[in-house]
Amino acid sequence: MTRTPTGLATVPQTLADGNRLGTPGEHKHHTKAPAKLTLSSVTAALPVAVGKLAPRQMIHSPVMFTVLVGAGLCTAICLVRPSVFSIAVTAWLWLTVLFGTLSEAIAEGRGKAQADSLRASRQGVQARLRLPDGGTKQVSGTELRLNDVVVCEAGDVIPSDGEIIEGLASVDESTITGESAPVIRESGGDRSSVTGGTKVLSDRIVVRITAEPGQTFIDRMIRLVEGAVRQKTPNEIALHVLLVSLTIVFLVVTMSLAPFASLAGATPSPIVLVALLVCLIPTTIGALVPAIGIAGMDRLVQHNVLATSGRAVETAGDITTLLLDKTGTITYGNRRAVNFFPANTVGMTELIEAARLSSLADETPEGRSVVDLAAEKGVSGPELAELGRGPEQLNVVEFSASTRMSGLDLDSRRVRKGAAAAVAAFVADLGGRTPDEVTRRVQEISAQGGTPLLVATATKDGARILGTIHLADVVKPGMQARFAELRKMGIRTVMVTGDNPVTAKAIAAEAGVDDFLAEATPEDKLAVIKKEQAAGRLVAMTGDGTNDAPALAAADVGVAMNSGTPAAKEAANMVDLDSDPTKLINIVGIGKQLLITRGALTTFSIANDVAKYFAIVPALFTATYPGLGLLNVMGLTSSASAILSAVIFNALIIIALIPLALRGVKYRAVSANRALGRNLLVYGLGGLIAPFIGIKLIDLIISVIPGIG
Ligand SMILES: Nc1ncnc2c1ncn2[C@@H]1O[C@H](COP(=O)(O)OP(=O)(O)OP(=O)(O)O)[C@@H](O)[C@H]1O
Ligand SMILES: [K+]
Ligand SMILES: [Mg+2]
User: Which of 411, 439, 474 is the C-terminal boundary of a domain?
Assistant: First the structure.
């Protein structure tokens, strides 16, 4: 890492106030308008849908594959013995398959426009590659490899994903977030990552590339919205097994009807048997499953969340615990030094000088803000290079989440700053003690939700605490209400932070989380997740720092803030482009909606099939078994029109349900059991009744066709 202190002081204070410039007081939940189902989107999807009729693709859906085979068989029969009835049935069987692929093509098509605009954002982007000799060379952005170093200045489009290793800039991320307010990105802290395709608005940054070509964030997003990376989730596999079983059962049922009927002297034609089979197997859900899944992922992208797997989205629907880190997640995360408080026996200048010295080589935003505040208070001192030796020979004690301290080792003394408990222990080890007024100051700052840092110095004669630095951070607005909403959904929120218990308590109260854990190391954060999981709970984790990465990886649903470090984003299975910790509300909603929609349409589909059986079988056999005429309550015109009406109804119901599959069944924050009961009633009962009405209506219309009625 390059240890040049950067000029944070040149950034106007108001700009550095919030993560999002200009809108510190207003945390927006930005969502893109969902794509509408229009005539043009349907016509655009039509050729794609025809392409999907290839048996190689159809085999993935056994139900629809059965219909395809049936349609092929009937076509062959039509060629040999054409009749109005057989041609009509065959045509509608083909339409049934087509409506299925059409629903999938429409769902995919909605992401295409978004993918195209993402692609355009990278078109022809040039990069200034830094050469080993320090010079730069112009290269194409797509040529960049992992660990290349590029220089980006105001006006440049950042050529690929990376981590800032030097400098600070305001960045326009609207190409990926749709949010026009610029954000601050800077080296050293938890806001160091930049995304290819976004634009530098001011200043100059040096970026180390963290993605291989074709593996950037935008590449992944394009593949996601185009539906190219769909894998079946465990729920989808379970449904798949159910659908295959039902298909086999009804195949057997239909086949056994043939000898049964011929015994009575009325051998049903193969066309009738195929039609009956198609009506009985769950074609509605078989046709709509892919569209439901794609639409769910699409909704997530509309909420500016990028997920690497559909599985995580569905799991989100069943989450009961949400862990969040504090700094950078619940708060904006640009903690800045706002004041110095010397111990009674120490002068203000002595404290500030030591605090400054301990931060000279500290590249974190906290460290740099201490140097800045020292300059503001008029205290200057040696630069790193002037400390008698080059910075290479200086022993720099870098901040780590487990030591909670940072500082420098000089010839005759050591300076440290860090969390109160850590510095107190460091001093106590060398025989020093923490003065009472310092302890009181630490309590006072913590109680306000600030982060106190103690400054200490150690020589061969022992160690002394010099005073306290007050670091202040701002809780993102609107947290209380959103956490209350999570509580209503039955989700417990727990803040896990590396900060001290008093600060943690104050911030927890201000944000309105249910519980908190303070002084948590990365291992502790991981342990909390393991414990929750061992108790059988599904856990989501939201975080931004490298110290959150293990926990993000272990959680069932890990949501990284887009503002966070590359390590955090890599470990998580979702990234929120808006860096909004309460986005989980939307993610859970989308997950639940996905499961409910699939469940509701499955219920409807199966209920429908049962009803169709009772609607058409009596009509089929009234000629053979006049006794069955009693059951022919529907009074359908003839057995031919009964069969054809059922096939037409079966195909049209797919079209009718495409909008619902894409939009999703409305989800409200009620308990899962109540939602399930309500859905069974609405979609089960609806599925039972709909065929009787639909088939009767179609029968009335088509009975006028000669050869059918
Ligand atoms: N640059 C630094 N130098 C010295 N001490 C620091 C520095 N940055 C933070 N600290 C101290 O170390 C503690 C732990 O930091 P850590 O990054 O693990 O957690 P955090 O940022 O406070 O909280 P969270 O885990 O919620 O992000 C901080 O609360 C602070 O007291
Ligand atoms: K069916
Ligand atoms: Mg953090």
Answer: 474
Given 522, 549, 577, the domain boundary residue is 577
Q: Residue 423 has what pLDDT?
A: 97
My answer on whether 622 and 501 are in the same domain is no
Phi, psi of 126 (to 5 degrees): -100, 150
Both tokens assigned to 519: 């002084």
- Residue 75 pairs in a beta bridge with none
Q: Do 311 and 337 share a domain, yes or no?
A: no
If one compares 477 and 390, the residue with the highest pLDDT of the two is: 477
Pairing of strands 162-172, 204-209: antiparallel
Cα–Cα dist 52/585, whole Å: 35
Predicted structure pTM score: 0.79
State whether the beta carbon of 646 lies less than 6 angstroms from ligand 1. no
The response to whether residue 546 sits with its C-beta less than 6 Å from ligand 1 reads: no
Residues 6+ apart with CB under 8 A from 152: 128, 158, 159, 169, 194, 200, 204, 205, 206, 207
Is 544 inside any structural domain?
Answer: yes
| Residues 92 and 235 grouped into a single domain | yes
Phi/psi of residue 495, nearest 5 degrees: -90, 125
Q: Report the 10 Å Cβ neighbour count for 571.
A: 22
- Do both 511 and 563 map to the same domain? yes
The CA distances from residue 339 to 27, 359, 361, 443, 446, in Å, are: 27, 15, 20, 15, 14
Tell me how far apart the alpha carbons of residues 325 and 698 are, in angstroms, rounded to a whole number.
59
- Which atom of ligand 1 is the closest one to the Cα of 522? 18
Q: Are residues 391 and 515 in the same domain?
A: no
Residue among 398, 464, 397, 452 at smallest CA distance from 426: 464
* Protein residue with least CA distance to atom 17, ligand 1: 401
State how many domains the chain has. Answer: 3
- Say if residues 422 and 406 touch (Cβ distance below 8 Å): no
- Which amino acid is it at 18? G
Q: Residue ranges for the binding site?
A: 362, 366, 399-406, 417, 544, 548
Ligand 2 (single-atom ion) residues, CB below 5 Å: 283, 609, 650
CA 290 → CA 69, 239, 531, 693, distances in Å?
20, 12, 35, 28
What type of residue is 518? Answer: A
Crossing angle between the packed helical segments 234-263 and 270-280, to the nearest 10 degrees = 150
- Hey, what are 504's tokens? 């943690």
pLDDT class of 229 with cuts at 50, 70, 90? low
Q: Do 419 and 354 share a structural domain?
A: yes
565 lines ligand 1 (CB under 6 A): no
H helix intervals, 62-200: 62-80, 84-120, 174-177
Active site residues: 325
Q: Is the pLDDT of residue 566 over 90?
A: no
**How many A from CA of 512 to the centre of ligand 3?**
18
In a domain, 153, yes or no: no
Q: Which residues constitute the domain of residue 347?
A: 333-474
Q: What residue's CA is closest to ligand 1, atom 27? A: 327
Task: Say if residue 445 is in the same domain as residue 469.
Answer: yes
Asked if residue 271 is part of any domain, the answer here is: yes
The CATH number assigned to the domain holding 487 equals 3.40.50.1000
Q: Is the pLDDT of residue 629 over 80?
A: no
Verify whether ligand 1 is closer than 6 Å to residue 100 (CB atom): no
Say whether both 440 and 482 belong to one domain. Answer: no
Q: Which is the closest atom of ligand 1 to the Cα of 548?
A: 25
Per residue in 650-668, pLDDT tens? 999 999 999 999 998 887 6
Distance from Cα 438 to the centre of ligand 3, integer Å: 26
Give 23 Cα–ligand 1 centroid separation in angstroms.
25
Q: Residue 36: pLDDT above 60?
A: yes
Ligand 3 center to 521 CA (angstroms): 11
Q: Which ligand is nearest to the CA of 525?
A: 1
CATH number at residue 444: 3.40.1110.10
The answer to whether position 93 is within a domain reads: yes
Interface confidence: ipTM more than 0.90: yes
Give me 476's structure tokens: 């993102």
On whether the CB atoms of residues 109 and 41 are closer than 8 A, the answer is yes
